[in-house]
């Protein structure tokens, strides 16, 4: 499948079967994360794989947006390792680096027949504390993933896009 078809086929899955993702497929998803580009190759992104019943329950206590997924990736970045733009104060790369990693993971999961959803609706700092992550690690998203339940289909909003001219401007 070509890239555009793959990207169009990806949609947010919010209902999962109980079947756990096979180890070899998790490894491919993590390899996609590992090879993702980062600013100045600083590689500040961090990925935490949550599959234990205890870990999933901790996440469910923090947000309703786990959607009974058997695996949840917590994706963030190490503040001390992000690129800092010396030409303009406040421009740093951690969120961008982690977002690129998350996108790679979503697309690889789709190619492997695994559904996922990007979740922003969670208490970032409290989640990091509950999992005893270093204070310097900033979570940017959760990514529940697994095999979609039998009755799952894409949201009607999946097909709605603004005209491309609103996004792309030629200067």
According to DSSP, the number of beta strands is 4
Strand order of the largest sheet: 1-2-4-3
Shape: globular
Q: Indicate the percent of residues in helices.
A: 25-40%
Q: By CATH's scheme, which homologous superfamily applies?
A: NADH Oxidase
Please describe what this structure looks like:
This protein has 171 residues and is of the alpha+beta class. It has one domain (3-167): NADH Oxidase (3-Layer(aba) Sandwich), CATH 3.40.109. It contains 6 helices and 4 strands; from the N terminus they run ααβαβαβαβα. It has helices at residues 3-9, 23-34, 53-62, 94-111, 124-130, 164-167, and strands spanning 45-50, 71-78, 115-116, 137-146. The two termini are 33 Å apart. The model has no long low-confidence stretch (mean pLDDT 95).
Layout: helices, strands, pairs:
Blueprint lengths: L2 H7 L13 H12 L10 E6 L2 H10 L8 E8 L15 H18 L3 E2 L7 H7 L6 E10 L17 H4 L4
Antiparallel strand pairs: 1-2, 2-4, 3-4
Helix pairs in contact: 2-4
Give short descriptive properties of this protein.
alpha+beta; 4-stranded antiparallel beta sheet; 6 helices; 171 residues; 34% helix; single chain; NADH Oxidase
